[in-house]
Design brief:
It is a single chain. The protein is mainly beta. It is built from 2 helices and 40 strands. It is elongated, with a radius of gyration of 32 Å.
């Protein structure tokens, strides 16, 4: 019996040893010449095809001298004459016999890591180092191959609208980001309200250059960098809703005025603000909808102006003078008499005017609890585990500070109703928090549209949310 157990132990040990050997072995590679091959020794990178293959380097298997030992490969690239003291060293592991660079990838590598000037010719050397696993100091190095590569000016992967015609004016730290168009390299689009004024494009927040300005025509772009003082801008002559499409490769632009609202600005005018003109907030989702959410200490009469400071211009008014609170109330627009107005008592109100349907809702507001939910939060997507925010001395403001993971985030008011709760949502899908105050969209009885914030960097965040003004700050600490 003891002999049987001893045999079993020996057999198990042998199997383990053979398995380990199998993990480290490769087929006998013999002693063939270890060399690399290039498709060409002269390459000009193609800015118009950033995802296209620019350079494919292949090599034969190195020799393991008949040992069946595994072979690990490392690709090296450096400037000619640097003897591979710098550059890049890419450990590829076993069974890999090629290295492929795309146009934009190689261009960014050369103008970044290698500090090459855009538009210059770069002399490079490449080689592959093979190491036989399990054998100390056994390395084989391929013959060095030389390549000449012509770079181009890098084309940005981000683009921002900036100017007094745009939502955020000339603040280059808050310029309006455009969306990259899927499937169209270096194409961007944006749709929203533009005011009468000027605009151009920048590629990096907080930096004026590089920039794209108006070219020789209204449909062309000019790239501006360095000491270039050229600063011609695109002009918007009529406020409205526009779609802007940009192709950075072709350096073309298309600006189309859509069927947008008649007004991009409206003003609360009433007893509460001594009949001054206080700007209303344009809804971040619907440009036809305007909000005025505030605590009214005096209440009284009000109407809604269309031209700041002009009492003779058109005003939005109630259909019946003295109308109070209510939802989906009829609205008319007129100038002069009869000077009909709404009338409310002191209190907190949310006033929402839809100039497309010509309806207004004047609703008294009572704050509620607010909870975080999303896979960026500790709760995940479970409403029952939603994370409650903390109250502050301001009854309309809640705060939360803690760790957010990479992922999505939104806010609900009643976890017991699950997905039928009211939600505070981002102004657009996959919205990156700005770290400063931004507008939210409030959706009753469900998420519509289901816009969430996207947290791209894990860390400690502080969130401050005002239910009344529907504004939020999500700031990484």
């Amino acid at each position: 019996m003891k002999i049987y157990h001893l045999f079993t132990l020996l057999l198990s040990a042998l199997c383990l040893t053979q398995c380990q050997l199998k993990d480290d072995m490769e087929l006998n590679k013999g002693s063939k010449t270890f060399e690399i091959t290039l498709p060409s020794s002269n390459i000009e990178l193609n800015a118009a095809n950033p995802d296209g293959e620019a350079l494919k380097i292949t090599w034969t298997a190195a020799s393991n001298n008949g040992t069946n030992a595994g072979i690990s490969y490392t690709f090296q690239m450096d400037k000619q004459g640097n003897n591979f003291a710098g550059g890049i060293k890419d450990s590829l592991g076993r069974g890999v016999y090629e290295k492929i660079f795309k146009n934009e990838e190689l261009n960014n590598l050369l103008t970044g890591t290698f500090s090459a000037t855009a538009g210059s010719e770069v002399d490079l050397e490449v080689r592959v180092v093979a190491k036989v696993l399990g054998l100390k100091y056994v390395e084989q190095i391929s013959l060095v191959k030389h390549i000449k590569v012509i770079t181009h000016t890098p084309i940005s992967s981000k683009l921002y609208l900036i100017g007094d015609a745009t939502p955020n004016g000339w603040a280059n730290d808050k310029a309006t980001e455009m969306k990259a168009i899927s499937g169209k390299a270096k194409n961007f689009t944006w749709t929203g309200a533009l005011k009468k004024g000027e605009f151009k494009f920048i590629t990096t927040l907080n930096q004026w250059k590089p920039a794209y300005c108006k070219g020789d025509t209204d449909t062309s772009l000019r790239y501006v960098e360095g000491d270039d003082s050229y600063d011609e801008k695109f002009k918007i002559t009529e406020s409205g809703r526009y779609t802007v499409n940009v192709d950075l490769i072709a350096k073309t632009i298309k600006i189309v005025k859509g069927a947008g609202p008649e007004y991009t600005e409206l003003f609360f005018v009433g007893e509460e603000n001594s009949w001054g003109f206080t700007s209303m907030t344009v809804d971040p989702i619907d440009p036809f909808t305007f909000h005025y959410n505030a605590v009214f200490t005096k209440g009284g009469e009000f109407k809604i102006g269309t031209v700041k400071g002009n009492y003779d211009a058109d005003f939005f008014r109630p259909k019946k003078n003295g109308q109070g609170v209510g939802t989906n109330l009829d609205v008319v627009k007129s100038a002069g008499d009869p000077d009909d107005k709404w009338n409310i008592k002191p209190g907190a109100y949310k006033i929402t005017l839809d100039i497309k349907s010509m309806k207004i809702s004047i609703e008294a507001f009572t704050p509620t609890k607010v909870y975080l939910i999303g896979n960026a939060t500790p709760a995940g997507w479970s409403p029952a585990d939603a994370v409650e925010m903390s109250a502050t001395t301001d009854p309309y403001t809640t705060t939360w500070e803690g760790t957010l993971k990479t992922g999505e985030l939104k806010f609900l008011t009643d976890p017991s109703k699950e997905w039928d709760s009211d939600f505070f949502l981002a102004s657009e899908e996959n919205k990156t928090p700005t770290g400063s105050e931004e507008l939210m969209h409030f959706s009753k009885k469900g998420s519509n549209p289901d816009n969430k914030w996207k947290i791209s960097e894990e860390g400690t965040y502080k969130i401050t949310l005002n239910q009344l003004t529907q504004k939020i700050i999500i700031k990484k600490q």
